[in-house]
Specification:
The protein is built from three helices and five strands. Strands 1, 2, 3, 4 and 5 form a five-stranded mixed beta sheet that branches. The protein is an alpha+beta fold and about 120 residues long. The protein starts with a strand and ends in a 6-residue tail after the last strand.
Length: about 120
């Protein structure tokens, strides 16, 4: 069984029009809507897309940042960001959706993670 990324959305930015004021300092929530490649349905997998500068500022504020679900980028090249996330997700393979979902939790925050 394989995973298919059905769509990308963000509550923080317009993915088609994203032009940050500072291309070296931004961060936003990215959701990949994913499901089994062979059947219908979709669930959310969340990532924080961030630059090193934004991450550095967060470390300075909080003293520590945990790295789970981070997608660290060098700029706002949205096609490259989305293609990289898509490739990372769609390379996963397992005998069942439950096993795939467990693998998804290693990449991002999976919608039903607490149920696994």
């Amino acid at each position: 069984m394989k995973v298919s990324v059905r769509n990308f959305i963000s509550p923080d930015v317009d993915l088609d029009e994203f032009r940050p004021d500072d291309p070296e300092n931004f961060s936003f929530l990215l959701q990949a809507l994913v499901g089994p490649a062979e059947s219908a349905g979709e669930e959310s997998l969340q990532f924080i897309v961030t630059t090193l500068r934004a991450l550095e500022e967060k470390v300075q504020e909080d003293g520590v940042v945990f790295g789970h679900s981070l997608v660290i980028v060098d700029g706002p090249n949205m096609p490259r960001i989305l293609n990289s996330v898509r490739r990372s997700v769609e390379r996963l393979e397992a005998p069942s959706w439950e096993r795939l979902a467990q693998q998804l939790t290693r990449l991002g925050v999976y919608e039903f993670e607490s149920e696994l």
